[in-house]
Design a protein that fits this description.
Oligomer: single chain
Shape: elongated
Order of helices and strands: HEHEEHHEEHEEHHHE
Strand order of the largest sheet: 1-3-2-8-5-7-6-4
Number of helices: 8
CATH architecture: 2-Layer Sandwich
């Protein structure tokens, strides 16, 4: 069985979502994750709206320097009425995060050369979809870089205050070297650890998120036959069983969700 199924998981709407913070950006490395639910009858119209307006606005925000990068993610599993998010928009910031206001939206629309107003853009969005939530995450560490068409396995982690620092240390010291080896070997394209910045608190269904980025859907579900060898090469002084037994005591994986990276924007 694939090790990530045994080690990590979690729940919630966004993240990625919190999702994933692989963008090359300076401290403090904040990103927002906006969760959208699309009305069932509006699927085709929403996809056209994304192609005609949303992804162009995202690229313009990056080109203008407001963002360092931008991702548009589509839910793969779960889907349907019970799924919290049909789509996620992840926006990476060079400094403090903010919601998309009229000033930033107008600047992006102008730069993208669109013949609409901010009100038009919002009207199109609200006619086709509902904004479920907007969360803020801070990237702790990351490996690799995603590309369009990749799959994001988002693991939502429930962590107590008492275990939080130890969990972060485990991800950085133990899992990160493994992630680097998996990226080097082509098993994954990237990996990251993100913590909830707003909202936050013990009552949330998750306090942190890890993201594994795979190059294909087949790679998501493939067994990693060389994981044990890779672990022993990276951590010759550690016992795998004891190591992951310790990990299970540090956090609870409340849910895993899978998304595909349909559009992305980065600085040219």
């Amino acid at each position: 069985m694939k090790f990530t199924r045994l080690l990590v998981c979690s729940a919630a709407a966004v993240a990625a979502l919190a999702i994933p913070a692989f963008a090359q950006q300076t401290s403090p490395g904040f990103h927002t994750a906006a969760c959208f639910k699309v009305k069932p009858e509006n699927g085709d119209a929403y996809r056209k709206y994304v192609e005609d307006e949303v992804q162009k606005v995202g690229q313009a925000r990056v080109d203008d320097g407001e963002l360092t990068s931008w991702y548009f993610l589509r839910a793969v599993f779960p889907q349907g009425a019970s799924a919290e998010c049909d789509y996620l928009i992840i926006a990476f910031f060079p400094n403090a995060p903010h919601a998309l206001g009229n000033e930033q939206l107008q600047a992006a629309i102008t730069k993208a050369g669109l013949k609409i107003t901010p009100d038009d853009y919002k009207r199109h969005r609200d006619a086709l979809s509902t904004v479920v939530s907007l969360d803020v995450f801070r990237n702790v560490t990351y490996v690799g870089a995603p590309k369009k068409g990749d799959y994001f396995e988002v693991n939502y982690m429930r962590v107590t205050d008492a275990n939080f620092d130890d969990w972060v240390a485990f991800e950085q010291k133990t899992w990160k070297p493994l992630a680097e080896a998996m990226v080097k070997d082509g098993v994954e394209d990237g990996w990251s650890v993100n913590i909830a910045a707003m909202p936050f608190g013990a009552d949330l269904p998750y306090q942190g998120v890890t993201v594994d980025v795979y190059p294909s859907l087949d790679a998501v579900f493939a067994d990693d036959a060389h994981f044990d060898d890779r672990f022993r090469k990276v951590h010759a002084d550690l016992d795998p069983g004891l190591t992951f037994e310790q990990a299970e005591k540090l956090r609870t994986r409340s849910q895993v969700r899978l998304f595909s990276l349909d559009y992305m924007a980065a600085a040219h």
